[in-house]
Fold each of these.
Amino acid sequence: MKLTLHVWRQAGPSARGRFVRYDVPDGSPDMSFLELLDVLNQQLIARKEEPIAFDHDCREGICGACGMVINGRPHGPQRATTACQLHLRHFADGAEIWIEPWRARAFPIVKDLVVDRAAFDRIVQAGGFITARTGSAPEANSILVPKPAADLAMDAAACIGCGACVAACPNASAMLFVAAKVSHLGLLPQGQPERDARVMQLVAQMDAEGFGACSNHGECMAACPKEISIDFIARLNRDYIRGTFL
Amino acid sequence: MAQPLAVQPSATPSLARSLIGMKAIMATSGVILFLFVVGHLLGNLKVFQGPEHFNAYAEGLRTVGAPFLGRGQLLWVVRVVLLFALGAHIWAAIAVTRASWRARPIGYQRLESTHTTYAARTMRWGGVIILLYVIYHLLDFTFGRVNPSFIPGDAYHNVVASFRLWPVSAFYGVAMVVVGLHVYHGVWSALQTLGLHRAPTERWRRGAAGVIAAAIVAGYVAIPAAVLAGWLR
Ligand code: FES
């Protein structure tokens, strides 16, 4: 496969970035998108050029490290698929592909396609956990969890924190991420004691990080590799209003 | 080590300071304005019953509540509530729009939308158009400044006189379509923003928003259309 890539190159956080065109003559339909960048980087290194920096870790779609906007779509055109799990067979031979980093004030660019997503970590640190005393595991049946609640909580907990929701949102809002974190604990009995405090603090941190405001476009849900529903955003709103008045 | 979570008074954002809170204010004020749009339409449709009925309705708006309330008192209460809701709606819209613009200082070379609707994408400029339209509308029928032959107290005459001019009717029609789009996204969005959402409502709330918006546009546009067609004279 022959592919033409236009990749965002930016030497550092405050450097000026630009798109650079690369021709990759030896792509294979079985390659993942990140392997394509690996192959290109080998060529760049052989030419003594700076390789393209991009984030990756598990390469099996579960860690949330990878992420780039491919032809105007976070993680590329394939539904429910991270960039690392996107294969070149979804592109036509001779395709022209534009690759950009996530763009949000809260996700400053570190280099090329790598952005700093520590804002998400700070949001989780603000309350995306339960304060459980550690010790021996309690008897499993001492806290009963209704099956529908467990299923819904698992749907929310599928979030891998990649940031595609922010990248896709016309407002650069982090509502889907925060909604997932608030919901997966708020749906379970273990999350109840701190439920109000959690939502207030996560939202306060979200605002402090400089994310935009949700205007219910639903682009986040369409871009989410884990297909997390914006129903959780309604749940977040409800919990926040509850936390404010009750 | 993680400390147990507690709501710290200083860390608690007030409704007017957090983005979710502003959205809740926008949704609540939007619901008030929406109820007005529906009520106003139901009243306006009395124009089809003829001048006596319509003018009696217009007069009735001023005398409703008598003898407990004085002339026009309830009307003014409603006007004040509406002005307050409009102010809150616009204030919240500006605040969240600015936050969103700030949140992405450098845009994409290319970002494709896959899920959003035309209605959702035109909320902001649509809102500006609606505001300009409302100002014109008040100058036309309430203050009579831009009405071709305003007669205080003869609402039926004023409506027909204005809508007989096709540019006025055309502008009104376009404005109503913008209102329809705004209501369509607004109704659905308000349910989401206020968290009034349970799995069963998900199936019908988009469709319901569409039907409501279409009915509002059809009802309002029927009046200038009937004037232009010569049915109302
Ligand atoms: S590298 Fe882990 S999800 Fe893509």
Amino acid sequence: MIKIENIHKWYGDFHVLQGISEHINSGEVVVICGPSGSGKSTFIRCINRLEDIQQGKIIVEGKDINSPETDINQLRAEVGMVFQQFNLYPHITVLKNITLAPMKAKKIPKKEAEKIAYELLERVGIHEQAHKYPAELSGGQQQRVAIARGLAMRPKVMLFDEPTSALDPEMINEVLNVMKDLAREGITMIVVTHEMGFAREVADRIFFMDYGKILEGGTPEHFFKNPQHERTKLFLKEIL
Amino acid sequence: MHWEVVQKNMVYFLLGSYPHGPLGGLGLSVLLALGGIFLAFWIGILFGLMRLSKRWYVRFPSIIYIEIIRGTPLLLLIFWFYFLVPVIFKKPMPEIRTTLIAFSVFTGAYVAEIVRAGIQSIPKGQMEAARGTGLNYRQAMAYVIMPQALRNMIPSFVNQFVSLTKDTSLAYIIGVQELTRTATQVNNRTMNAPAEIFFTIAVIYFIICFGLTQTSRYLEKRLSYKTSGRMRQRDIVELKDNSEAS
Ligand SMILES: Nc1ncnc2c1ncn2[C@@H]1O[C@H](COP(=O)(O)OP(=O)(O)OP(=O)(O)O)[C@@H](O)[C@H]1O
Ligand SMILES: [Mg+2]
């Protein structure tokens, strides 16, 4: 479903992504970890074209996302994204945060969009907060709203960029639990995180990134028990 | 002191010869300021957005406009329109319209900069989140960025309005019957109370501008209440504390 063919990206002279090739299948849950600055965020932001690549190809559902013929807005509707900093819209209520894109981009009628939003809020466990503003919620609740907002467009893939790193420790689990539910429901997920417990439990594959490359990838079992690369071993020793 | 001069001419200061003749005095000043800021608002939004465009041929005209105007005194701009428009179009334009155009073009450049700063003050993540859900650039601007930016712009925008209100006195120079001109006329006629007359005019300008600034403070507060219920609660607690203390 997602084919990544030898992509390269530069920020000026700086070679951030140095040739990444991967296939990710429908329904797969992929966790990406690696040291700070290794290009994890940059990589997943390329998948919904928040960043452009200079070489290589990214094919999502058979569409080359960097081709001028691809309708980028339609593509982004199919690839939801959750950010470290939540990025909820502070000036509108939780409900409107969720219904905005379905109503404006997909032209779904208000009633229907709200029905979907309530269902999603129920699913992430905060339907009673629908009429509050983002600033009135805790960090964990805000991130769950952000997940609901991403899901409202019925995406085929969800990208998560360190969704729990900005949270107080006691709120991390409420967000991870929502993500685990999603993983079990079979949505394709690419998750940048250092929550190795989460990776062990739900990931189909774990990628280790360093210096703009995916150094190795494999099932959690393989990854934790039998890392091949020195750098992976070092990283695991530090983080576990 | 001859305060009776002020008293006798108060209606003239406020309304000019209205309703028997054209509106003038404070009424005209306020009307010019309101008209000017209204047009400047739309000019400012347009050029502020153009200023942020990725395409150079959209951005460039906006930069030229903003920089030229910011380097030109308003009085000179009024002269330009007053003396040049008749030359170009071969017929004179009414003074009031001339000043209104000069005011809008002048203030529009400053509002454009306010709009640009307002948009740039919104965290990058807002645009990314909006685009990330499939909204196009225009929709993201209209529903996510602008509503927040406009709110942040209120204080600077009101400042600009206050400046413009005071600057309407420059219309004096080409014979528009605004507040300052009515004052000068009365002074030239009576000759015995310049201090009283110009003191009164100063007070009138002050009241209007002070009122505007206060309204802006109030608006800023009220709008921020709406975005954050936490703040609302905290303010209620503070209010209680204050009333208990006093
Ligand atoms: N817009 C940019 N311009 C220039 N350099 C950038 C930009 N964004 C990121 N970089 C650089 O690219 C490198 C990779 O950044 P990226 O954010 O992808 O790392 P990361 O693996 O997500 O790190 P972290 O764990 O800290 O989030 C970093 O060295 C960063 O400084
Ligand atoms: Mg990152």
Amino acid sequence: MRLAIPHQQRLPLAIAALGFLFLGLFLLYPLFNVFSASVLDGEGEKFTFANYVKILGRPFYRGAVVNTLAIGLAATITTILVAVPLAFALARLPVPGKAAIIALAAMPLVLPSFVSAYAIVLLLGRAGVVTQWLQSWGIGFGSIYGAGGIVLVYTLTLYPYVLLPTMAAFKAVDVSVEEAAQSLGSSPRRTLWTVTLPIVIPAILAGGLLVFIETLENFGVPFVLAEDMPIFAVEAFKLFVGETAPNPSSAGVLGVLLIAMTSLVLLIQRRFLASRRFATGARAAPPILRVGLGLRVAASVYCWLVVLLALVPFFAIVVLSFMEFRGPVLHPNFSLANFAALFERSMRPLLNTLLFATLAAIGVTLVGVPIAYVVTRLRSGLASLLDVVATLPFAVAGTVLAIGFVVSFNSGWLILTGGPLIMVLVYTVRKVPFAVRSSSAILHQIDPSLEEASISLGRSPLQTFGRILVPLMLGGILSGFVLTWVTIASELSATVVLYSGQWRTLTVVMFQALEGGGGGIATAAASTLIIVTLVPITLLYRLVRRYELAT
Amino acid sequence: MTGIVIAGATRTFGTVRAVDGVDLAVGDGEFFTLLGPSGCGKTTLLRMIAGFCELDAGEIKFGDRRIDRLPAHTRDIGMVFQNYAVFPNLTVAGNVAYGLKARRVSGAELARRVEEALGLVQLAGYGERWPHQLSGGQLQRVAIARALVIRPQVLLFDEPLSNLDARLRVSMRSEIRDLQKSLGITAIYVTHDQEEAMSVSDRIALMQSGRLEQVGPPAEIYRNPTSRFAAEFMGTTNLVEARALGGDRAGLVSLRPEALRLAADAPADWPQVGGKVAHVEVLGPITRFDVRLADGSLLKVATLDAPHLTPAPGAEVTLAYDPARITVLP
Ligand SMILES: Nc1ncnc2c1ncn2[C@@H]1O[C@H](COP(=O)(O)OP(=O)(O)OP(=O)(O)O)[C@@H](O)[C@H]1O
Ligand SMILES: [Mg+2]
């Protein structure tokens, strides 16, 4: 009897089966439970839309929908307005220190955004350092709490999502296209508007959509800044953890609505953006434009200003963490008391953060790289389905996935709640899409005939994967690992739902200190987190640099 | 070593019949070439033998052993790829040793065989180099050494020379042939270049749309094409109505340009046709010219360069052709 599965597909199919098993159990099953909690009545027996009617009947929650969408939209627009000129300047204008600017500009991607929000409060809040200093001069300004402050923090922390793809797109425009326009009589300015910008618009929109989705899912920034304004991810958390009684069905409704919103955005992106890619097949990179001194100075000042401004809050937190706090009130004396207070109770939060990030980053690599292999090497509907499922966590807010885990694994045959494993698993699932994306990008660059050469020389597909693909992907896997590691270290939205007892992390310490008004410990935790993030990133950067110099 | 027998091999992609019922027997130690236009299914057939493409129907045997159901890595084949596929993460020696290590060869034996294989392809002493330090021709030699060193039952080449420049192509192809003959390994070679196929092959299979059009030694296919496609694909030819040449039967015949000469330069018993010179190209060693016949058809003529015989455009000339070199097409 001939086996129905061709040999060269057995390995990808086996991996796909394991991938579906993992994601089915730790992604689809929890999400299904969130969904069923939202459509079952109080006894958990009958199907009903009563929960939806109840939630959406309350102006408070309708307001949450409107606020979340409006803030997301506003932040997307401001981000684009800030990032596109920056991208153009970095790609096409003579700006001194470009490499440094680009390295600094990528940093907000890995630094925790709620730390930035908290720094803004410490600087510009009611009792903020800058606020008080200005007041002593008799200058006042509007409140940074609420929508304005949230949009400001989003803009400062999310602009790289638009900057990086747009800059790449500006660089990828084939110079001959612009030259053609100018030879047809178009002025440089008109060429920019009518030729260059339209070519980069898909990249701008793609970045903008990432920003929009990030804002919908973000928990930490509105938690710090929204005050009484209802925001989706925060309200879902409050409903679930319950100031009065935990309420999985109402939290489920918010969770389902949140997933529906993000999925809708992602679908729109797939439909309209995927087909609108203008490949110009750049043969010659466009030249740096010659501009007058005025524009050159303006562009340089703008670039440095944006990049540094975005990092000021993080810098400020580190400085403030070395000052004396009495309760929430800051005194400008140098002191190590905050760190002493943070660590004298226990080193556990720091160790937990390091441990969880390491375990989850290993998990993400072990799950993500093989899935990427299947997605790029197996041409079938199954592979596309796996791709979609593995991308799904991107559309699920951390809060919602965490709620699903608690609902799913607090009883029955697999009990995870209360332990460390549940946190590691949720982190792993959340970051899988990023690992799959980055690994498939690398795999697309590796010619499949290398694998065939290895197989024809007598190595089985599995041995070929280990001996040829893994070594070739190693650099990419390593940088993916570091990036996953640092983003997990500063994960907040799922962590606050899942932590328990001794398994608190640095972000939880910060979160609790914020709730309890312990400003000193919060800044110390935030600084520690920044250092924990920057050390591996710097090491990675140096490693990459050395590697590039070597080859 | 091993002969290859292919029976009824078929593979369909969607609606495309990439390989359509191919029957083929390749002799032990033979240098066999699959030749055909782009998309005719050469690569697909080769990959079926290598084990990278499933058969929908049919079977493939090495000698008496059926291999089309074996996993690719157990088939004992040396394959040389169009884009070299040299592992960039291994040195030259590491690449050549790769298949030997998979066969658990180690120590002094490994080193000796690697060095020997590198010597065969004239890369002795290059073992410690990295692939990115080599030229395209050297990379292709590494790929060949890597395939040879495992002493496979069968060697497969998929357009191995198409990424090299014209001169290197010519010298590498005779090197490949010499190596294959000295080692006596059965080889199947894929190319779409007719001249390359003719220069290296013992036999050629001419393919079109997934089917074998004609199989035979290069000279035989060139001299006696059995179809219009074979006549046109194997070099330049004149396809003319037999009547235009003064014949008495209807139908197409193929007449190679070099079978035509100016009547003044030809044996007296060759049949003659008259026409007017339309176009002349002096290419160096040979001269080509087109002659328009009375019925309007055009005959391409190729002669060795002969200054005193080169006609001028517009001149009326009489041509003669070798009657033995006319091929009647079905
Ligand atoms: N994996 C595949 N999926 C779908 N169609 C395929 C696949 N591989 C080959 N084909 C189709 O099968 C036909 C034969 O392809 P094949 O690669 O064997 O041609 P070829 O003779 O090697 O051509 P070339 O000289 O261009 O390399 C083509 O029509 C091709 O489009
Ligand atoms: Mg081919």
